Amino acid sequence: MNAPTKIPVASRRDFLAGSGFVIGLALPMGKAAAKAAPGGEVTPFAPNAFVRIASDNTVTVIVKHVEFGQGPATGLSTIVADELDADWDQMRIAFAPANDPLYKNLAFGTMGTGGSTAMSNSWMQMRNAGASARAMLVAAAAKTWGVPAAEVKVAKGVVSHGAKKASFGELAATAATMPVPEKPTLKTPAQWTLIGRDTPKLDSLVKTNGTAQFTMDVQRPGMVVSVIEHAPAFGGTVAKVDDAAALAIPGVVAVKTIPQGVVVYAKDTFAAMKGRAALKVDWDLSKAETRSTDTMVKQYVAAAATPGVECEAEGNVATALAAAAKRIEATYVFPFLAHAPMETMDAVIEPRAGGADFYAGSQFQVGDTTAVSKVLGVPFEGMTLHEQYAGGSFGRRATPDMGNAVEAAMATKAFGGTTPVKHVWTRENDIRGGRYRPLIVHTIKGGVDAKGKIVGLDAVVAGQSFMRGTGFFNPSAKFDEAMVEGLTGSAYAFPAIRVGANELKNGVPTLWWRSVGNTHTAYVMETFLDRLFELGKQDPITGRIAIMKDDRAKAVLKRVAELAGGLSAKSGRARGVAFHKSFGSYVAQIAEVSVGADKLPRVHKVWAAVDCGVPINPNVIRAQIEGGVGFGLGHALYAEITLGEGGVVQQSNFDTYRSLRMGEMPAVEVAIINSTANPTGIGEPGLPPIAPAVANAWRKLTGKVVTRLPFAHSENA
């Protein structure tokens, strides 16, 4: 595969330069879309543009989602290449410019990557893009050869009619003159040649040979590097700064105060960090969040003991539980969690007359670019986003208030607004800087009848809403759906169920974290169900299947049981099962566990079955399931952010915020259901089932019921 060694920027000039041609799509966006073509100019047939075919025979797919390892660049290219009948070796990718009318996420209404929506919102868009391009190439060949278009064939990047053959590149110039089909003919599933088959990721080569450019790699003439000192407690502000020692550090060029903290500017990152360490800052913590985690947990537990706002209800839970033959209840505590992506937050902003160049692995391209333009006081039209690869996110780069971009822009403006500034968050900034998965407490009650069947569930979630007050929250809504997702709309049918929510105020900045509310609701549902099945003397697999609402859920659970050979394990080990539906996808996992040397679960193998609709690229799907297992397992076993006295975060780096290590990664075997449903999410659904699967195995093995995560928490000893 001829993977690109340099990713071209998808500018207006790129679209129009040379002898290649651009495929535009007349998607239902109307005149507004046409007016907002890349570069702000109107193109005659390109209200939307995703495919570029150059005279050198390369096919470039314009990717509207940030690529941070989850695979949208390859997934979107797979869809286009299949409908186009391109050869995989000729496929290239380029990141889209910040342009909502052309490149918005159809699920969000603005450019953005999240909620595992990349494939689902782009599915038909990319199919139409590829099919349109194919039709125009066929029309070009028919005109060139003087033959009926219906007799022209396309396969693996070659257009042919009998003995006549041409590459895409040879036909590009003529194809550019062909009319864009309003309703291109799409392939049937039986005609797909790439969709559903393993194809290598298009960005693997550049990421392994070091030529892929991340924001940290960006260098601009005259650029300075800035790092920031944040307040020790959330909500604190700067009272007084003594920067004499910092300015004496060789390479340090300035120290400025902005609302987010004190910024040190230097000729390089090391000098900036040394300068920051030399700062003497007095903080005003009069309005800061100073409660400790222990204090918060007590308050949350008290709140979860009350009914809260009713989010979902069916049947009479109180009556059902009162009549139950056996009942159990539990209180679960989930900690603050940091995203801790491998590449910390960073951005490069280079001001220029009338605007600025903005370099970032942006998860909200238009939102971040708009935020920078507002801080700098320049028009959005004067901004150019240079989208970069990003080294992970898990939600961290998508802040509703565009906080990362705002801070970088303020640091740039404070330095004078004329010099390029690379603003870098250190690992300590990232771990201590908040935007965590919220602290959450659940209470849940359930019971079974004399025959062992579940009669009802009563669950209450107490936590902090990071959605309320943002553009992502319906102001008329009575509760935050993200807090209870997975409990509400469950894949299971119960005779009676009630889900309540209590929103609590908290000064700790929080954010969606990979799989969002499903990270805790799946754990509560799946571990509590296991205990109810045991109470009712039911098998955990057949018991789940008996109460599942739809056949796709049942098929996934049956498939994972078949893959693993059931729940029996050899001596000294135990197997646990869990299932969860999230982001439209169904995932079931079985984990085989023993007692590790540290007295924590040692997970040897995980079997997973997944139905995420049409499996566009199984290679990417398996990678996402494996990644979800590793990410979820590390956080379930070891990770938590805690606030100590005065609200100070007690963790600072990977030595105190423990992740899963290479030697602890279990073997993962994945079975993918060959579904015909439209594609759904895959970036996040692999995570929720792993923690409860391990917990269920752990309870079977040791008898311990783990209701406070992580497993390493002292209460679980």
Describe this structure in words.
By secondary structure, this protein is an alpha+beta fold. The protein has a seven-stranded mixed β-sheet with strand order 10-11-8-18-15-16-17, with helices on both faces. The protein has a five-stranded mixed β-sheet with strand order 13-21-20-19-14, with helices on both faces. The protein is globular. It starts with 11 loop residues before the first helix and ends in a 15-residue tail after the last helix.
Set out the fold topology.
Blueprint: H1 12-16, E1 21-24, H2 30-35, E2 49-53, E3 59-63, H3 72-84, E4 91-95, H4 100-103, H5 118-145, E5 153-155, E6 158-161, E7 164-167, H6 168-175, H7 204-208, E8 224-229, E9 237-242, H8 244-247, E10 252-258, E11 261-266, H9 269-277, E12 280-284, H10 293-304, E13 309-314, H11 317-322, E14 326-334, E15 346-352, E16 355-360, H12 365-376, E17 383-387, H13 403-414, E18 421-424, H14 427-432, E19 440-448, E20 454-463, H15 481-484, E21 497-503, H16 518-535, H17 540-547, H18 551-564, E22 574-582, E23 585-595, E24 601-611, H19 618-637, E25 667-672, H20 690-702
Parallel strand pairs: 3-4, 8-18, 16-17, 20-21, 24-25
Antiparallel strand pairs: 1-2, 2-3, 5-6, 6-7, 8-11, 9-12, 10-11, 13-21, 14-19, 15-16, 15-18, 19-20, 22-23, 23-24
How many H/I helical runs? 20
The total strand number stands at 25
Gross morphology is globular
Strand order of the largest sheet: 10-11-8-18-15-16-17
Structural class: alpha+beta
**Average pLDDT:** 92
Radius of gyration (CA) equals: 27 Å
Unreliable parts: 1-48
Largest β sheet strand count, sense and barrel closure: 7 strands, mixed
Strand content: 15-25%
Helix share, percent: 25-40%
Terminal Cα separation, in Å? 51 Å
